């Protein structure tokens, strides 16, 4: 008997429905972000995706041209290398979202069905399922706020600096060439000599900044949604295993086993679809944090502190993003162990012999925890987060001795 069919009062039933409806809003966030990229699986828009990808890769190519030109002059510009690495990572995210779009569509279809009241047998099981919904929403909001704040500061600050410098020069009536400030190092096809041409170029890069924020937020929202939802499913499953009832023979236990197999199938799909994405993230995160820390040390020198705010915000954003993904990986590992413990702690001594054999098979399978993997490099967890920070600091010490 599920929660919907049980003898509960109308007030409690209404509250449970409201909780599920409020929790399902996280799916709406994913839908809105993926629609902007033309990647919502239920209504994909190939033209919008192709336009976004071509536009983004075009600007990435301009960034690469500038990087090559600096190298030909035997100048290693740290800022342009950070920019190339970050934008290259974001373009890889966009392409990987498109590659696994069909799998994400299957996953979202499965997830929608989980937000129905008939799937839960008690109010406590429902609370276990929603246990990770609030942390997921909190982390998504935090990353969205950080990305928006960084994008606004990164985009607006050089334009305001240029405007006030030109204004001060005009007031002083000085006959000098006023500088133009940029945060991006995209290759320019002609020289910029007037403030009007500068403003036109600056406005033309605005869609690129918006697209960068959308891709980052869409990827983070997707990863956190899938990871926390799967953690909630595991938490509800472990609760049901511990409280399985055998008054109706072994049918209820077999239903729990089928539910476990369904969760394992979804977990394998999530792991396969996100493995390359997480591998790309962990590789870029360790290198990017090292380079950004090195740039921070450079910005601490006199005369360079004007660029410090961008560097610090970028470093904070990358740390928060990596920490949130590692937290989700830690949730999955903990709840996988809870499912294994639940099989040990259930009332196996009251079961028929056939059900005891099923428990042995499920115990063997639950010994390998569900996890977020970064290819063969490791598993996302708090331990991996600390190892990435340590390796970044180690790379930084080597970089300071070499450069």
From TrEMBL:
Q: Record's GO cellular component, any one?
A: plasma membrane
Q: Which InterPro entries match?
A: 7tm6_olfct_rcpt
Keyword hit for Membrane: yes
Q: Which GO terms fall under molecular function for this chain's record? A: odorant binding; olfactory receptor activity
User: What topology in the membrane does the UniProt record assign?
Assistant: Multi-pass membrane protein
Q: Which UniProt keywords apply?
A: Cell membrane, Membrane, Olfaction, Receptor, Sensory transduction, Transducer, Transmembrane, Transmembrane helix
GO annotation terms (biological process)? signal transduction
Q: Localized where?
A: Cell membrane
Q: Which residues cross the membrane?
A: 47-69, 75-96, 138-156, 274-294, 306-324
Pfam families per the UniProt record, alphabetical:
7tm_6
* Homology family: Belongs to the insect chemoreceptor superfamily. Heteromeric odorant receptor channel (TC 1.A.69) family.
UniProt cross-references to PANTHER family, sorted A to Z: ODORANT RECEPTOR, ODORANT RECEPTOR 19A-RELATED
**Which named protein is this?**
Odorant receptor
* Taxonomy of the source species: Eukaryota, Metazoa, Ecdysozoa, Arthropoda, Hexapoda
């Amino acid at each position: 008997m599920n929660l919907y069919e049980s003898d509960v009062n109308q007030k409690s039933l209404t509250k449970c429905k409201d909780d599920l409806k409020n929790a399902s809003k996280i799916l709406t966030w994913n839908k809105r972000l993926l629609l902007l990229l033309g990647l919502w699986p239920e209504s994909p828009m190939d033209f919008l995706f192709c336009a976004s990808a071509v536009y983004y890769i075009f600007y990435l190519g301009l960034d690469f041209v500038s990087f090559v030109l600096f190298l030909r002059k035997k100048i290693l510009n740290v800022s342009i290398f950070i920019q190339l690495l970050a934008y290259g990572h974001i373009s890889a995210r966009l392409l990987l979202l498109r590659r696994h779009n069909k799998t994400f569509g299957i996953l979202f279809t499965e997830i929608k069905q989980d937000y129905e009241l008939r799937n839960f047998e008690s109010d406590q099981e429902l609370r276990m399922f929603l246990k990770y919904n609030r942390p997921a929403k909190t982390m998504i909001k935090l990353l969205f706020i950080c990305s928006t704040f960084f994008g606004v500061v990164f985009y607006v600050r050089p334009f305001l600096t240029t405007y006030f410098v030109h204004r001060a020069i005009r007031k002083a009536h000085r006959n000098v060439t006023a500088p133009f400030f940029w945060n991006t190092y995209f290759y320019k096809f002609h020289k910029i000599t007037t403030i009007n041409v500068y403003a036109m170029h600056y406005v033309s890069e605005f869609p690129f900044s918006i697209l960068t924020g959308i891709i980052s937020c869409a990827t983070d929202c997707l990863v956190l949604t899938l990871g926390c939802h799967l953690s909630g499913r595991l938490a509800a499953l472990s609760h049901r295993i511990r409280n399985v009832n055998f008054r109706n023979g072994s049918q209820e236990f077999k239903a729990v086993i089928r539910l476990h197999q369904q969760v394992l199938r979804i977990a394998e799909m999530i792991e396969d679809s996100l493995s390359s994405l997480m591998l790309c993230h962990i590789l870029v995160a360790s290198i990017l944090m090292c380079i950004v820390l090195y740039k921070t040390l450079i910005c601490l020198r006199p005369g360079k502190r004007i660029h410090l705010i961008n560097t610090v915000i970028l470093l904070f954003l990358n740390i928060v993003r990596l920490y949130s993904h590692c937290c989700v990986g830690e949730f999955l590992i903990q709840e996988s162990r809870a499912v294994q413990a639940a099989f040990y702690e259930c009332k196996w001594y009251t079961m028929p012999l056939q059900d005891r054999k099923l428990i042995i098979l499920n115990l063997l399978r639950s010994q390998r925890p569900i996890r977020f993997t970064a290819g063969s490099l490791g598993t996302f967890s708090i331990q991996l987060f600390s190892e990435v920070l340590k390796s970044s600091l180690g790379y930084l010490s080597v970089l300071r001795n070499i450069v």
